[in-house]
Amino acid sequence: MPTKPAERARPHYFPQLAAERLDIALCRASAAVARAADAHAAEEGLGVGQHLVLRMLDAVGPCSQQTLSEELRIDRSVMVSVCDELERAGHVRRERNPHDRRSYAVTITDLGRGRLAEAQASVPAFLDDTFQALTPAERDRLAALLGKLLGV
């Protein structure tokens, strides 16, 4: 008996496409990880960009929004809103940059450090869940390869 079009098995073309076009595979994987990170951030109540800004400020100290934007590879217009939200929440403060009075230095507050510590506590479980298909050695290799692609 002939099968109706609706009964045919769906073609599984993407695995072939991903094998042939590494750029497409990487874009799709990146989008999937970004969706997972956004969902995790929503659960935590601290956006991905906010988390990254707090983490960098905690690690390197006060810096300009421009430096944050360049280092974290976040668009400058987005960085303004990220810093605005963090400042409203009391997690950062903006002060005149002592080295360049025309700009402001963004500084993490004690409240921001506490919020960062809370957010950081859930990261290992999130990463384990998101990258569960990879062994620890494969995750290390992926990190090295992505760093190479990003020039870091």
From TrEMBL:
Domain HTH marR-type, residue spans: 19-151
Gene3D superfamilies listed in its UniProt record: Winged helix-like DNA-binding domain superfamily/Winged helix DNA-binding domain
Which SUPFAM superfamilies does the record associate with it? Winged helix' DNA-binding domain (SSF46785)
PROSITE patterns assigned to the protein according to its UniProt record, in alphabetical order:
HTH_MARR_2 (PS50995)
Q: What is this protein called?
A: HTH marR-type domain-containing protein
